[in-house]
Amino acid sequence: MAARGKYDRSVVHAILDECLVAHLAVALPDGPRVMPTTFARVDEVVYVHGSVANRTFREASGAAVCLEVTILDGLVLARSAFHHSMNFRSVVVYGTATAVTDPTERRLALDAIVERAAPGRAAAARPPTESELRSTLVLSIPLIEVSAKVRTGGPIDDEEDLSWPIWAGVIPLHLESGEPLTF
Amino acid sequence: MAARGKYDRSVVHAILDECLVAHLAVALPDGPRVMPTTFARVDEVVYVHGSVANRTFREASGAAVCLEVTILDGLVLARSAFHHSMNFRSVVVYGTATAVTDPTERRLALDAIVERAAPGRAAAARPPTESELRSTLVLSIPLIEVSAKVRTGGPIDDEEDLSWPIWAGVIPLHLESGEPLTF
Predict the structure, then answer these.
(1) Nearest partner of B12 among B47, B43, B48, B38, judged by Cα
(2) Average pLDDT of B25-36?
């Protein structure tokens, strides 16, 4: 990780605030498990939520976890097979996931997750009922042991490959939203 | 996972073949770790590769791993906060990652990973040298214990929320490629 490691707090925040899906890993007794999940950052905490019936979330509660987010920015096509790469921005957080029990913090976390879908949405949507809240597990992971990795720019070919007869460069990629669909 | 679990082999293959980044989890002695990685599927095997200097890849070799890929297809905005969701297609593979040592299989795997960037690229690029091959760890994970999860369609609101005065629907998302950049 050394060469591409970045630890600037604003870089970490910006990546977490742009990416919509996190990958939450936990070491279950029968092996590691990683699942995709929605999430939200509030100050120096990341919140995830899931059904109390979800085994992975239950096992993650109080356990050591690793949460990773990655934004893919482009395919890096080098002249050598070896130097092919990707442009990306990623964050990895290590920590203990703690079940959030305080009602105020739980609402703050759940509202923040809904806000990821569309700003203002948490205030406009029908609020959660007591029963819905009881069926929802909210976990917090503090941004203490956290790092970002960022790769940008073109391929880095060896000097002697620069005349290799193929195009080299970057194919940029970004997540595009389409026209809203009503059902 | 029950309700949205899909185990059709062609669905699993299609998701793996479309998604460009996988999330590889391993249980390290000091806790779980998940890292983003390029990958390729060849028949019923997923290959990942990394530097022999990469601790996570070294620890994954011969270990129980979990590999997850997720394609985000849309934000599902419901009338209730609780029923907000995402449309997505994901695959989770559990298994033991095995270091590939056979030279032919190693080249097959590495070529397949380069081909993900652009079809025909593996044959056109400067092939890997012996030294580059020695510095590259290739791991295989068989598609034996594997499942797919797919969510499509609109929000599923409770009957009594259908008149709640906000728009509900789906904002489609897809990964778009831009104009190739030459450096």
Answers:
(1) B43
(2) 95
